[in-house]
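User: Hey, quick favor. My workstation is busy. Could you predict this chain's structure for me?
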Amino acid sequence: MVKFIDSWFVVAAFSAFLFNTNASKLPPLEILADSIPPEAITETEGSSTLSSDGSAPALYPTLAQNSTAGSRRGSIGSYDAGYAATVNPLVIKGNRFFDSVTGDYFAIRGVNYYPRPNAGPLDKNNLDLFSNDFKHIWNRDLPEFTALNANVIRLYSVDPDVDHSEFMCALQVEGIYVVVDLGANCEGCEITADAAPACYPASYKTRGEKIIKQFARYDNVMAFSGGNEINHRTGGNPWTWNAPCQKKFIRDMRAFLQSCSSLRQVPVGLVVADTDRDANALYYNCRTDESDKLENAQWYGINTYVHCDDISDPTKATGFNLLRDSFKSYDYSIPVVLTEFGCVSPSFPTVDGYQAQRTFHDAAFMNLPEYSDYFAGGIAFEYSTENANSVSTSAYPFKTYGPQNYGLGYLSPKDCTDSGANCTFERFPNFEFLAEAYASYDGSSEPTLSNYQVPANHEASSTCINGSPILQEFTWESDSSSSEVCPTLDDSHFQCSVPLISVSPVTGAPFLLNSMLVTGEGIESLPTRSGDDATFQPPATPAPTTFTRGSS
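Assistant: No problem, here it is.
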């Protein structure tokens, strides 16, 4: 049965027509149908898959089988009448991401986001700057993501005890997905440098589950990362030193998600530094216990800086092609994301007085068909140069080459704090190079969710190499720690405010705005929809919590 949308649908559709909706950022507004029939959903090996006709993904383990017409909260496309989605949840099929509703292939074109100011109390590593309390920071940067032609941002740490609803909803209306890291370098908040099993404190399990409960509610969460570069924290020991802790944590987070039928099954993976490439890649996609279908990661991120010169011909990009060939040889069954890329080097040109401006040719060709069989896309490092890291080799305004001058721009003025003296974002020339590279993407030859046939050599998880640590041989503190209570059906999906059409101040592209319609003649109020949830009331914001960030 089709559920017809009231006058809000008419207003939104008409507004979209007036503003010439950009389909690359906002999917077409559609009449919302009831959830997919339960017979279209199957479960294999603890993860969602497609029915034989490839009609729809199972985003929730059991919920769709219990849903009925008119009871849509928490189901696929779970929006009450009068609401429309600005992004659709993503799903994985084989080693690719797809839009779960349109079926389009999703090529990741992202940026790592940590807007650290130049001075003051927020000039620290790894604070959570994404809560409602810091709207003055992230609201400044939202139009820049759109201007960059990005569709993903990556966050290094979040506080599970504060409200991020305004941030996540603002990203939704700009069409931006988020990779959320579950770790941070507060005490008990990450995989440590200790040997397994001590490197995995039970408190990290609790933290991870709390973040999952909070963020799985948002349709624009692309994935969870179980950690960032823990293979750089071995103290000179082999990669096996703390890798079992990372693998066990991923397994625990997958088990928690699977146990909560109300939660969307957001994929859980990890991010590693590009060392011991073969061993790490194979270990995290293998099962040391073949009967444990949750042991391997669901996606794999690698921070890799292999394209360090101004070569625009992909056939001559030696380092990048060696990386591609490595993953080609693994016959990988899960998506691979270049979670940090963008080498800095003095070999890049000086542009408008700024030295070593990265030309980002790798950002243009990483999503070409000859690479998309092995890479799901990439996330450039990083949005803004961090003054504290760069000042010793390239000081403000960062015009000279420096090994830590990774920004697509910088924050100004020199002593801005974003806590009383707000910063402005100034673009480097390399911002425009990356924007052009992302804009050049052409996905017309890529398969869709329904017609993509996973190649036989990409179907199975990897084979563990000799010497791979076996998880069952350790006694894990987390096994004695109780899990978080699963959220109720009502709490499992966060409905952002009633959306209406507005226009991005940077690109002129439409986006959605609550309760007001911005037109060329000004702002005009529109009537609120009747019903208990007609107007979104954000939850009370706790006092800001700060903690420091791990390595990046």
